[in-house]
Amino acid sequence: MLKKILVGLVVIIGGLMAYAAVRPGHMNISRELLINANVDTLFPYLNNSKMANSWMPWAESDPGLVMNYSGPAEGVGSISNWDSKGQMGTGKAEVVSSIANHSVKTQLTYTKPMNMSQMAEMTLTPSGSATMVRWQVTGEQNFICRLMSIFMDMDKMVGGEFEKGLTKLKASVEVK
């Protein structure tokens, strides 16, 4: 009986691992929100690491998060580093591309709890007197991430955080 249980567990675990191995390795998560503000008002909140972290949801979801900043205050080379014993782990966000009043690309590098790299892009598209703000992250998923995504809906989990952040940005810049 014990042998049948062990064989069953091996088959289940092997099946899960095989399924994870053939899942897509590329990840793309995005959310967008129409904000009643012009691109001139919104762009500094994307291009300046300290201002960006004022509306991003990470500090609220991980109270032990410690942020440090280096490089220029804004634009290419602006860096924020984080460290936490909680869910955020340790990593770095560096602005690698900045097109005034249009887009900011940030290279995200995670070192704890695992090594991983992603590209985040924030895009501003004028829409009348408002602006559509799009937050997108892309990257390759290693085997562990693909295995975890079998049990967790990463689009829902990360996308939900993007929604919180964009809503907070909207509240920060819209004039009531």
Which key terms come to mind for this protein?
single chain; 176 residues; alpha+beta; 6 helices; 7 strands; 40% helix; elongated
Mean pLDDT over all positions? 84
CATH architecture: 2-Layer Sandwich
Q: How helix-rich are the residues, as a percent range?
A: 25-40%
Number of strands: 7
Globally, the shape reads: elongated
CATH secondary-structure class: Alpha Beta
Overall structural domain count? 1
Oligomerization state: single chain
Q: Please work out how many helical segments DSSP would assign.
A: 6
Structural class: alpha+beta
The H/E string reads: HEHHHEEEEEEHH
CATH topology: Alpha-D-Glucose-1,6-Bisphosphate, Chain A, domain 4
Share of residues in strands: 35-45%
CATH superfamily: START domain
Cα-atom Rg, whole angstroms?
Answer: 19 Å
Q: Could you explain the architecture of this structure?
A:
The protein has 176 residues and is of the alpha+beta class. The protein has one domain (2-173): 2-Layer Sandwich (Alpha-D-Glucose-1,6-Bisphosphate, Chain A, domain 4), CATH 3.30.530. It is 40% helix and 36% strand. The chain has six helices and seven strands. The protein has helices at 2-22, 39-47, 49-55, 58-61, 143-151, 154-173, and strands at residues 26-35, 66-70, 79-83, 90-99, 103-112, 116-127, 130-140. Strands 1-7-6-5-4-3-2 form a seven-stranded antiparallel beta sheet. A hairpin with a 6-residue loop joins strand 3 and strand 4. Helix 2 (39-47) crosses helix 3. It starts with a helix and ends with a helix. The model has no long low-confidence stretch (mean pLDDT 84).
